[in-house]
Every structure is written in C-alpha cells, then in structure tokens.
Amino acid sequence: xxxxxxEDKLDPELRNRIDNIINSIxxxxxxxxxxxxxxxxxxxxxxxxxxxxxxxxxALAKNTKPEIAQFLYDIMxxxxxxxxxxxxxxxxxxxxxxxxxxxxxxxxDEPILKPLxxxxxxxxxxxxxxxxxxxxxxxxxxPRGFLVAFSVVNDLEGLQRLDLSQFSKKxxxxxxxxxxxxxxxxxxxxxxAYCISLLKEAAALSxxxxxxxxxxxxxxxxxxxxxxxxYSRPVIYKHISEDEIKEKPxxxxxxxxxxxxxxxxxxxxxxxxxxxxIASIEEAHDSRIVLTPAQKDARINSIYKSALEAxxxxxxxLIWKRRLEETxxxxxxAGKDREARLALSAAIDLRNxxxxxxxxxxxxxxxxxxxxxxxxxDSDEMDEEKKxxxxxxx
Length: 394
Fold this sequence. Notes:
This protein has 394 residues and is of the alpha+beta class. It is built from 17 helices and 5 strands.
C-alpha cells in the first residue's frame, strides 16, 4: 500500500515518460539486442533529461527479469553520482533476495554505459533596478533535477544574495514565471558561462569591499570552476555590433526616449546627490536680480552642467555605461530591437567624457527627470509654470 502511495506522488507526465522508457528497454530485451544496445536506448532518453535517473532506477528495480538486473549492474560502470550508485546497489540487493541472478564481472571491462557528459550550465538574467541590483540565475541539469543558483548582484556592493536549490524541470519553469519574471521586468535566457562570470565579478567586488560572501558561494565556484566566458565584452556585443551602432548616429539622439519604458522609467539619481543643485536652481529662479528669460535659462543650464560633471565622474559614468549594455541585452532578448540599439548607443557614447555642447541624451534626461521628480515631491504647492521653468534643454 505504501508503495502505491509513493508511485502516486510522481507527476503523471513523468510517470508516463518513465513507462515509455521501460517499454523501450523491454522491447530491446525481447529483440535479444546486446547490453550495449539496451543501454543505448536509455542513454538516448537520459542525455537530455537526466532528472529521470532516480525515478527510472526505482522503477527498473521492481522488474525481476535477469536482463533488467544485468542492466542495473552494468549501468554502475557509467555513472559517477554516489547517491545513484548507492540506490542501484540497494535495488540489486533486493532483487538478489528475490532470487534474481546476473553476471558480475571480476575484472572491469570498458564501461558499457559512458558517463553522461556534464550538461553545459544555462543562465538567466533580470533587469537592473534603480539601485544597480539584478537577478542572475545559473542552472545545471543533474540526475537529481535542476541545480539552481539564484543570486542578486549589485554593481556597487557586489554579491548580495545566493541561494542553492533543486528543482524539477517543471518546477523551475513555474518558479521563473510566477516568482521572478513579469511583463515589464522579464527574466531572459543568457549563456551560462556569462552568468557565471557575472557572479564571479560580483564576488570579486564584495571581496574588494571586505564584505563576506554569501554561504554557498564556494560550492557554486567549485561546481563551475571549469566554465569560462571567453569573450572580453558584455554579451550584447555578440548580437549587435558596435560598428552598426556607430553608423546610425540618430540612435544616440533618440536614446533619451528610453525613460518612457521599463526598466528605465524607474531609474533615477540619489536625491542626496541632487540637493545642492536643486537649491541653486531654485535660488536662481527666485533671484531678485533682474534677468531676461534667456539669461535665467543660461544660468540654470550651467547648474545642470555642473551637476552632470559632479554626479557622473569617470568611474560612475562607466558604471552607467555597463548598466545600459546589460539592459540592452535584456531588451534584445525580449524582442525590443530598436530600444536595445538605443540603449547600446547611449552606452557606447559613455565611454568618453560628456560633450559640453551635447551631453549624452540618456544621462541628460536621467538628470533632468530626477531633479524634476524631487522638485515636484518637495514643492507640491509650486505652480506648474515655476516647475516647468526649472527644466531646461541642453
């Protein structure tokens, strides 16, 4: 009775899949195929769906045919997972008690079943939020299911969170769709090696700040120590070339429009960095010195330019460059090709210091909307004409 309850716990789709595999194995036995061919049938299923290994072994152990017992014995030569080997040995012991016999090799021949090649890790990336944080996920298909490393990295503070979990294929898909992804802020697929490089980059930043790494990081590092991102630039450049962007200067001019869409509409500058400039702008507006509108605009505009240079020194400018490059990839994978190119154009422009005549449109609009937001929040009683007068085009 207890056994039936255990069987019922399997997902119907998984149960059906296992039954099909067992039927294929029994068919191979009935056709008197050799052990290699029988095992080959199983390999064809397990190479892509290694999470089937445990329930399949448990199902096979209930079959008392000598050929199946021989299969279980031979398969031990081709696997390295100690828990699976232990499960097989326990199953064989029970079969022996039932009188089932098989041939035991005294000398190890070449393994009939070659070890399953370790599947390449897969990666998933989320948008960067206003603080510089984003979700980075690395998964690996193992005999026990999906090994998932869920992390939150921050480009100013390093590795903030790391959780290691096991999921079924279906469970992981549901986790992505229901817990971490949305229409405005999607999670997109990315090369596993690239996501691992982002984890290592965040960990290195944490170390440089003398911050402790989350528990489990060393396990992730060991798990993927042989995986290397062999491209020196952010992943977006594998899909959109820099030359293409440079040939279309209108992309840069239009990049200020990006603040109308996610995730850019949520990006802003820390209010503390804006305080002195907002005070200077309001002082200029309320000055008793008689100025023409053009003179007043010029004075306010010069304050904006000062804020731009002070708030975005070289190091900070390059951080925003990387944010735009990473977000361009998210947009590209989400099917927003034009927006991806606008973001990448703004990023490429940030490689150089700001132009005094035409500063980077994306960053300029970021500065203006951040100032306007603070003025609006702190001065609810200010009339619209005064508010509008604080925002001047470069």
